[in-house]
UniProtKB/TrEMBL annotation:
Transmembrane segments: none annotated. InterPro entries: Aldolase_TIM, AmmeMemoSam_rS, Organic_radical-activating, rSAM, rSAM_sf. It holds the Pfam family Radical_SAM. Keywords: 4Fe-4S, Iron, Iron-sulfur, Metal-binding, S-adenosyl-L-methionine. The lineage of its organism: Bacteria, Pseudomonadati, Myxococcota, Polyangia, Polyangiales. Residues 156-303 form the Radical SAM core domain. This is Radical SAM core domain-containing protein. One of its GO terms (molecular function) is metal ion binding.
Length: 418
C-alpha cells in the first residue's frame, strides 16, 4: 500500500473576496430533499469535543431514493469550530485547511463538505465512508507501535485533487460520478469500540484529508485516547496552524504527504507547497510525532534534484523525521504512467542518508528493496526493527534504544495493544 492520494479544489467561480479559493456549492443544492441540517445539531456544540461527542444525524433520516451524496452528507453535519467571521458581515472564513475558503451565505468551500448555513459553519459528523483494521505500517507509519493493529477510517471529499489518488472513490466522491457514495452512520464511541474489540493499538484517519473533517476526527480521537489508543492523522499537509493546534491535544501522530517541490506540481494537485512545508515544521514544534511520505510518480516528481531538495527541507526541520519514498503504480487518471523504478528510489535514499537524514525508507516495492524497509540504529547501523512488505517481523529495541550500542531511536515505541 502506498501513500494516500489527495485531491484539489474546484475551479474558481468568481467570488471577489478570495481569488484563490472561492465557494462554489450552494447549500440549497446540498440539502435538496432533506430536512434542515440545523434541526439535528446539538445546541451546545462549542470550541471542543472533549468529554462527550456531539449528536450525529439520525441514520438515513429524511433520505429520498436516489438522494445525491451531497445531500446525504449535508444532513450529517454539526456546527464547526475551525472558522472565523468575516471578512464582511455574514461571511465566514474556514480555517481547517490552507485554502482558507471564504464562505458567503449559503455556500460551501472547495472541499464541498463544509458550508455556511444560517450564520454558522456546518461540518461533517457522525459517519465514515469506510474503515478497515490492518497493521499500523500500512499507513506508512514505521516509528509508532510497530506491529500494532490500526483501525483506519476515512470520510468523503478532499481539499486537493491528485490525479493518482488511490482512494479517489471516496476522496473524489463529490466530483466523480463513479465515486462510492454511502455514508456509514456510527458514533465516535462505537467506532472506537470496534477498534478496541479488534485488538487495535492505533486509530487513524486517512483515505481522504482528515483536516477537512477535523471536528469529527477530534471527537473520535478524544474517545480513542480515553481507551488508550494512539491516534494518527494521515494528511496531505495542506492545513493550518489553527487546525494543528486544535487536533494536537488528542492526536499523537501527523503523517504527512509531501508530494512535490514546485508551484507547478502543487498547482496540478490544487494546492501549494508552502503550507505543507510549514505544517511539517509546525507539527514538529507542537510535539506531534511526524513521518513524511513522498510518492514518486514518473513524469511528475521523479527528478533527483527536486527530491534531494525535499529531503533537505525535511532534515532542516529535524533529521530524525522518517522519510518514506514510495513507488507509484498506475491508477485513476494516471494509468498511462510507468511504475517507479526501485533503483531510482534507492539512489535518492542514499543521497538523503549521506546528507544527514537518519531514517529513510523505500516502500511499496514488495521485497525488492528489503534492506530499506528496516529501521537501523543511527549509531552502529544494526537493524533495530525488521520489516517485510509493511509488516513488522522483529522489534529489537530495548526501552526505545539500540540494544547493541544504546543509541536512542526516536519514535512512539512500546508494546502494541494488539
Ligand atoms: S476545509 Fe479547506 S477546502 Fe474545505 S471549506 Fe475549509 S478551507 Fe475550504
Amino acid at each position: 500500500m502506498e501513500t494516500n492520494g489527495q485531491s484539489a479544489p474546484e475551479a474558481a467561480t468568481g467570488d471577489p473576496l478570495d481569488p484563490g479559493c472561492r465557494p462554489h456549492v450552494r447549500v440549497e443544492d446540498l440539502v435538496r430533499g432533506a430536512a434542515p441540517a440545523g434541526e439535528r445539531a446539538p445546541a451546545d456544540a462549542g470550541a471542543g469535543c472533549a468529554g462527550g461527542e456531539r449528536a450525529p444525524a439520525e441514520p438515513g433520516a429524511g433520505g429520498a431514493p436516489g438522494e445525491p451524496l451531497t445531500a446525504k452528507l449535508a444532513r450529517r453535519t454539526v456546527p464547526g469550530d475551525l472558522y472565523e467571521r468575516g471578512p464582511e458581515e455574514g461571511y465566514l472564513r474556514c480555517t481547517a485547511c490552507a485554502h482558507r475558503c471564504v464562505l458567503s451565505p449559503g455556500r460551501a468551500g472547495a472541499c464541498g463538505i463544509r458550508f455556511e448555513q444560517d450564520g454558522e459553519l456546518r461540518v461533517p459528523f457522525g459517519y465514515v465512508a469506510r474503515h478497515y483494521v490492518r497493521s499500523v505500517e500500512t499507513n506508512t507509519i514505521f516509528h509508532v507501535r510497530p506491529g500494532a493493529r490500526s483501525l483506519t477510517f476515512g470520510m468523503f471529499g478532499c481539499d486537493l485533487r491528485c490525479p493518482y489518488c488511490q482512494n479517489w472513490k471516496v476522496s473524489q466522491a463529490l466530483r466523480e460520478p463513479e465515486g462510492d457514495g454511502e455514508p456509514i452512520d456510527i458514533s465516535a464511541a462505537d467506532l472506537v469500540e470496534t477498534a478496541v474489540a479488534a485488538g487495535c493499538g492505533v486509530l487513524a484517519s486517512a483515505y481522504n484529508e482528515p483536516m477537512i473533517t477535523a471536528e469529527w476526527a477530534r471527537a473520535v480521537f478524544t474517545e480513542a485516547r480515553r481507551r488508550g489508543l494512539v491516534t494518527a492523522l494521515i494528511s496531505d499537509g495542506n492545513t493550518t496552524p489553527e487546525a494543528l493546534a486544535y487536533m494536537r491535544p488528542v492526536t499523537d501522530v501527523f503523517r504527512v504527504d509531501l508530494k512535490g517541490w514546485s508551484a507547478d506540481q502543487y498547482r496540478t494537485l490544487g494546492g501549494r507547497v508552502e503550507p505543507v512545508l510549514a505544517a511539517i515544521g509546525e507539527a514538529r514544534r507542537l510535539g506531534y510525532w511526524v513521518e513524511v511520505v513522498t510518492l514518486v510518480v514518473p513524469g511528475f516528481n521523479d527528478k533527483a534534484a527536486g527530491l534531494r531538495a525535499l529531503g533537505a527541507e525535511i532534515a532542516r526541520v529535524d533529521p530524525d523525521i522518517p522519510w518514506h519514498l514510495n513507488a507509484f503504480y498506475p491508477r485513476y487518471k494516471m494509468r498511462d504512467r510507468l511504475t517507479t523504478d526501485p533503483a531510482f528510489l534507492v539512489d535518492v535514499a542514499g543521497v538523503a542518508y549521506a546528507r544527514g537524514m537518519r531514517y529513510v525508507y523505500v516502500s511499496n516495492v514488495a521485497d525488492r528493496v528489503r534492506e530499506l524497509s528496516h529501521t537501523r540504529c543511527p549509531g552502529c547501523y544494526e537493524v533495530v526493527v525488521r520489516r517485510f512488505n509493511y509488516e513488522t517481523q522483529e522489534v529489537l529495541l530495548s526501552g526505545g534504544a539500540c540494544p547493541a550500542c544504546g543509541t536512542r531511536v526516536p519514535g512512539l515505541w512500546g508494546p502494541a495493544a494488539a
